[in-house]
């Protein structure tokens, strides 16, 4: 304290004491507990020496460790300081303004409040609380109130509190008495159910730690003496808990969803603290980590942000340093937090002791193992479940050998085989299974692994752009040179700015306990952050990008690079290389065959190579708010530092510097959104330069070696790049946690199917690629769906808004024209860049063999991981992909190629297979002409529905038909078999609906039934009837109702499309008709969508009943406060992530960012989304199950198989075999009691705990829900075995 403040302090205290004495007399008129406490405090303070109070307020905690006595004194001093802080906060009379006075409800007979509860009460006065803010607006200056007036306000407040809390206190006493009856065997009343407290304590006093130990951890970590001292704390905690539960929904299911099997919790605040601690551990910053954890631990209100994983991070840091005394103190913190140690906790303690001489801690090791046994854990659990890094495994093993010299880690015992009925035979009956080999030698596969590993370690890859093939003009060369010079300058500027900003963040970190992004800016090299910023600048479109999206993308890129660096730091690469080199023996063509699946082989190799680090990762995922905050910091740097000369495009650039990026606000759906836009100078330079190079993240590219098989929910796909098994929005964790709680054996079918899809090798169709690139560089083609460059966009109209010659309506029309032109330019740029990325990646891989690793969405639908270039893309992308493995066409292969060609044209959808083959043979001249002269010939292929795939198929047929023997022609071309409105097929099979099954080709027929044409005919019949009655809109629609108009609505109605969405779909189709009167579009689309829904209701009665049952079930489940969950027939657990929107306000230097999340499981479920999405999501989970079953059985028969959801691909020679497998697995799946199993699951999950009081409103709601869930819709008489005979089920 400065000398001036010391001199002024006694005078300040003297005036303060007079006020306190008067207040004490004024408040003495009432004898309630709260007022007595205030009175006694005031009286005690008047009797104290002023310097005593000064010392209590301003004492500094020494940073030196002077022994146990000093630790105890510090702890007591912290108690006094915290109690004093609450006393000053509650003593509102001494403040200049009074916003609100809160009272803590105290049970009868209670005389004092502990300092921990004081903190809780103080935390309720923060202005973030809406009620507090409202109260603060009504605040009155205390100086203007007499003591009597102010005292009466206190009495009124107290009376109100007593009246409102009387019933709650009565219920609380009953609750506490019940807890007291159950608290036995030495357990404290605060013990959570199933929680035990453990503490490792040595037999004798250990030696003091060295003086260079981190300073923050000299803070006290002393356990409270007995649980009885917390009795009042328990009561007050329960009062507050009852208050909160009165205004919130029951979070029991949420708590279970956001907690893994090790006790780690995954709320946003907990993830943020864990991520901060892990970042500190990665940097070796023990002091900051300790400060952060102790700060949250010592404040009860903030302790909820800590879970067992946060303490384990600190334990891991102490274990690395071999500081056993700090391990003990952290165990004391766990005891205070009432957390149960898990495998990671004990493993850190064993690791610490393993780094010490064996004779020193043998007794401690023995007691540690005994406590593990009491908690139901074994040493084998440590080596099976813990994620080791670097040499941690060896250190733990050394500690165990101290008391068990002959111990050897045992491999996880083989669990019971998969119990799912659909997979039991697949895993148990493997005789005759011939798993396919790859057409590569062992050395080739190992060499490919080395190349892929190098790419992922470098994080990014730079490839040539297809625009580089254009001739370079003088202006283009000048612009490229100018852009390169500017980027070099910007790199240096950003690097210096980043280094200058870190000390500022560090100083704010020292003065504030808030977890900030400072340590996250040290996880990578400074150059890596600059690369991320420049990469974001290069990808910024001319129309700009939302600040929120830009920040999220840049933050995610930093997170991915950090994940790769972490794996490299943990010495994982060497172990991964050894395992993959052995794994390649299973796939190589020059090794003996095996009946082992890739997942099984990889798991066995990993178990055999048990030494060293684990291949898994147990790091906490970064919360979305942290990712955006980190990204927004980088965007702020770019906005502030990137500048360019205003006259840079002139021959002699001179002038002032202007920002390269600028921030602006635009309106999107009546919401103001912050946008980052590039300056037109930068846009002009980039467009004129047509850069020859493109830089991508490594995961954007296909893999050069077979992906790592999925062996668990956290291991698979890329070698180093972090990949989720279930792709979700950033910040969504409930799906991953739900997967981790499933028995491992029950997920084997899903994991093996994903591994099989990823093992399909691909190559580029070079002749077709060259044709597409030539069209792309020649201004594109709208007819062929090749986007033109932005230079071909319409000009933006120019007008003066202040022109007096224009009327208001003309100005409004011109503004609409300007907005439309700008939107068109933005869309053209987006489409052009998407095509540029796809073609450039394909051109880069033109001479390579590559693979697409797969994962899935939360419904189980599978997707390739590379985002741009994959077989799920558009017609253009699919046309340039072929199987790397070729197979002879055989006897029927050429016929299947021709049938596939006709399917691509879309001309003979209602013809039989024989009719389609006859049509192809009759047009062989057109097919050969298209293959030989795509642009100079008759151009027959351009009129097809899928023109580029049609051209590719024409070339394949031409090559096969011209070969000496087409049966021996080696074909790499994938042939597709598409489901006939697959969603309705599943509904018809579930309901055993004969009429519906016939409409979607489940019933054998001579010609394929087209449900879209059937619906169009039914709608036309309705229109004819209404037109005869004189309805005008029905008369206008004469001649315009066809298959194309109703197809999209029929296709999507089973996936939950509403009448509003269906009207928009039909409106779009009507607008495409040039001769339809535009003034009738709205009325016509409204009329048609009603008739389409009526037609479907008549044709698919069983489908509508099942859909209604699913919808109503989801409505009641979500209304009860739960999200809808179910398990697919393949054992995949699914939860719908639709919750009420939650807003997070993040402050950046540019603007306040409003982060809206609808997947936060701590919020109430969104009933509308839950009920509308359940039917389509349930059907999607069934079609993904059918696809995975088909993939597994095709793999066991040696077929190459991939899928695009309900469209299955294989070689032409194998189409008949794949069709048989597809039909067999569909029948096998629907022979299971799917709806009955769903009903039993929902009843067990949501209706197992009905209220006992039958007059309770909750009982009636639960009874209604239980009645509905148990009432499965009736089914029809359709025989599923007929599907096996249906040719057009998939065709």
**Which regions have little confidence, pLDDT < 50, spanning 5+ residues?**
1-31, 45-66, 86-152, 182-255
Instruction: Count every helix, treating DSSP H or I runs of 4 or more residues as helices.
Output: 48
Helix content: 40-55%
Strand line-up across the major sheet: 4-8-7
Based on secondary structure, the structural category is mainly alpha
Mean model confidence by pLDDT: 80
Shape label: globular
Largest sheet: 3 strands, antiparallel
Q: Give the DSSP E fraction (strand runs of 2 or more residues).
A: 5-15%
Gist of the model:
The protein is mainly α and 1291 residues long.
Descriptive report:
It is a single chain. The protein is mainly α. It has a three-stranded antiparallel β-sheet with strand order 4-8-7. The chain has a three-stranded antiparallel β-sheet with strand order 13-12-16. Helix 1 (3-27) packs across helix 2, helix 45 (1167-1196) packs across helix 46 and helix 47 (1234-1246) runs antiparallel to helix 48 (1257-1270). The protein is globular, with a radius of gyration of 35 Å. Residues 1-31, 45-66, 86-152 and 182-255 have low confidence and may be disordered.
